[in-house]
Amino acid sequence: MIEVKNLTFSYGKDKQVLHGLNFTVGDGEIFGFLGPNGSGKSTTQKILTGILKGHGGKVSLFGQDIATAHTQDFFQKIGVLFEFPYLYANLSAIDNLKYFSSFYPSGQLRDIEEVLEELEFQPDFLRKPVSSCSKGMRQRVSMARVLVSNPKLLFLDEPTSGLDPSGAVLFRRIIEKERRKGTTVFLTTHNMLDADLLCDRVAFISSGNIAVLDTPKKLKEKNGSQRVTISYLNQGKREEKTIETPELEAGIPFPHDEIISIHSEEPTLEDMFIQYTGRGLS
Amino acid sequence: MWKHFCSLFKKDCQMMISGKFFLLALGSLLLYTLFINFGYVKFMKAELYHVYLYDPQGTQRQVSGMVFPVTSLEELDKSLATDTTGVGIDASSGTPNIILYYGSEKVDRHRADYARSLLHPDNGYTAKIVGTNTPELKQRKEISCELLFIEIVAVGFLGIASVLFKEKQMGVIRVHAVLPLKRSLFILSKIAVFLLSDLLFAALMTICNVGFTDAIPILPAILVQTAILSLIMALAGFGCTMLLNDFKQFSLVYLVIAIFAATPVFLAANTSIKMKWIGWHPFYQIYMGLKNAYFGTPVTAPIYYIGSACGIAALFLMIQAAFHKETGKEE
Fold first, then answer.
1. DSSP codes, B67-118
2. Is the pLDDT of residue B56 over 80?
3. Do B72 and B37 belong to one domain?
4. Which chain A residues have a beta carbon less than 8 Å from that of B323?
5. Are residues B24 and B90 in the same domain?
6. Chain A: nearest CA to B244, how far in angstroms?
7. Are residues B178 and B65 in the same domain?
8. Which of A205, B68, B203, B273 is deepest in the core (most CB within 10 A)?
């Protein structure tokens, strides 16, 4: 679906922000693009969506070189969710969606109210100006704008930002559903939980370079320690011990009265990010 | 493409309605019409100078009926004391001497010549009459032209900026960059809304203040000039909105345009101030084009229309580039 070879980009003469990125995204894959602010992830997404021109290297989408790909036909096949809910504040949710969907062929469109219902948009606000909606509700309208055109390739920038935990769970469920339909998802995020739960593969980008690219599971396994930390009570006293996992095969290898908890020492995706890039995600 | 344009056009109209732009334009039209019909035309209706003649010996034989005879020098002084724009003629010596309150050199000469002409009403009146405008119609056309120019340059320019800054703040301009839509249509629909609004304003303004029968023959030429000015101002407003960060910065630019662009045009066109370079000022050319259209002598020089078309095309291309830059900006 997406093929990027040696992608470079500079803002002006001296400000190179991308230094030769290489990656591919397969059909129906959820690909996570993770990086701190200013790392080049937004620039990459803008190049892929045709907003920024003048890049170096080779980029192809839908098997077509990007230089010729950004036609109306291309934009009919993609959906782009921005980090902030960009909507006409004076128009209602329905009017916003009617307006934005009017640029797509009618045969391609989903029913607006059905999509909003799937996104658990409060029906009372359907015909009220978007300015009267909460940030979470506006983010739902934005997501509906993207989904209503049935895109084959989704670019999602921080999709769960501004949502409460149940909203974030709902969005993840919807993204999963899109993947099952065969939609390819290019997910740009800071949110490690989203990346961990959703992505088939993730790329860590830092200072315009991809530091590592793999599945979240493999990344954690490759770098995880084979240890567990056990909290227990022994003669009325609470104690904690870290042992190698194989030692557990023969049972708990030390005297104890009661086991309180056992935690594996598996690293988080964020630990991996810091390890590979030397930077945090904030 | 037509369907896309209609969607954009409908949405732009909604934005202008919610921004109360049409209401503002209607309010301006009402205010200007009231001002012209109940204010300007009335207080600009200057009466002719009254001429008072003291001629005890009856030396002046062919005096016009518009001259008021007085019986003494005291009465002449008294008349001029109450009617300070009046002109007195003391012909007691046999030779008419002009007496008047000082105004300005030009006006005083004019008043004196006028007074003398009334002593010989049948002589030397050989001026050829051109044009059919009555003094009131001339005043109506002049003020309608000035107010229409102000409306488009100031109010229309401000209107497009206020609508676009709203869209910029809402971030929706960026969404349009990823829609299956030709970006130039986004610009064209906005320009079209303002153009139609300005054309309608110009037509109503002319009909309401010049009069229906006098307005109809000159209306096509007025609409052509209005279209040129409207396109330039809407494109300039669009460009400023794309290049400037917020409405505060725009207010400064607006002031600069008002002071440095429009003021010299009005000074050169309506006062005796002479500016040699004013012929190079594009707004002056357009203002004079509009004024000539009101007086039934529209500009016919092809260079004027070629220059306007080139200016509009150049502005459009610059705006396309600025619009592209705006959509690629960091959030």
1. EEEESSHHHHHHHHHH-TT-EEEE-TTSS-EEEE----HHHHHHHHHHHHHT
2. yes
3. no
4. none
5. no
6. 19
7. no
8. A205
Q: How far apart are CA B260 and CA B324, in angstroms?
A: 29
User: Is the separation of the CB atoms in B58 and B91 below 8 Å?
Assistant: no
Tell me: the pLDDT tens digits for A103-154?
Answer: 999 889 999 999 999 999 888 888 889 889 888 899 999 999 999 999 999 9
CA separation for the pair B17, A169 (Å, rounded): 39
Q: Which two tokens stand for residue B272?
A: 């005796």
List, in order, residues 6 or more apart from A99 with CB less than 8 Å away.
Answer: A88, A91, B7, B11
| pLDDT(A60) > 80 | yes
What's residue B44's pLDDT? 66
- Interface of B to A at Cβ within 8 Å reads 3-4, 7, 11, 14-15, 18, 167, 170-172, 174-175, 177-182, 327-328, 330-331
The number of beta carbons lying within 10 Å of the beta carbon of residue B264 is: 17
Residue of A42, A52, A86 lying closest to B175 (CB–CB): A86
pLDDT at A87: 92
Q: Residue B114: its pLDDT value, please?
A: 84
Place B138 in a pLDDT band, splitting at 50, 70 and 90: confident
Q: Does domain A27-42+72-215 have CATH number 3.40.50.300?
A: yes
B214-253 per-position pLDDT tens digit: 999 999 999 999 999 999 999 988 988 888 888 888 888 8
Residues B172 and B277 in one domain: yes
CA-based angle A204:A209:A212, to the nearest 5? 35
**Which amino acid, A142?**
S
Examine the domain organization and report whether B198 and B109 are in the same domain: no
Determine the pLDDT at residue B19: 79
Q: What are phi and psi of B70, to 5 degrees?
A: -120, 160
How many domains, in total, are found in chain B?
2
Q: How far is A114 from chain B (nearest CA, A)?
A: 21
- Report long-range pairs for B33-36 (Cβ below 8 Å, ≥24 apart): B33/B205, B33/B208, B33/B209, B35/B147, B36/B140, B36/B143, B36/B144, B36/B147, B36/B209
CA nearest neighbour of B287 among B309, B261, B324: B261
Band the pLDDT of B177: cuts 50, 70, 90: confident
Same domain as B165, residue B21: yes
Which residue reads 């008021």 in tokens?
Answer: B68
> Nearest CA of chain A to the CA of B153: how many Å?
27
Look at residue B61 and tell me if it is in a domain: yes
User: Domain boundaries in chain A?
Assistant: 27-42+72-215, 225-265
Q: pLDDT band at A281, cuts 50/70/90?
A: low
pLDDT tens, residue by residue, A199-220: 999 998 888 888 888 888 887 7
Residues A4/A59, Cβ–Cβ less than 8 Å: yes
Query: Does the structure show a pLDDT above 80 at A282?
Result: no
In-domain check, residue B172: yes
Q: To the nearest 10°, report the CA torsion of A98, A103, A108, A109.
A: -10
Mean pLDDT value across residues A30-48 = 87
Strands (E), B142-295: none
> What's the CA gap between B241 and B168, in Å, rounded?
8
Residue B280: give the domain boundaries.
Answer: 8-42+133-327
Pairing outcome for strands A209-214 and A258-264: unpaired
**B259 assigned to some structural domain:** yes
Instruction: Find the helix or strand (DSSP H, E) in which A214 lies.
Output: strand A209-214
Partners of A51 on chain B (C-beta within 8 Å) are: 174, 177-178, 327-328
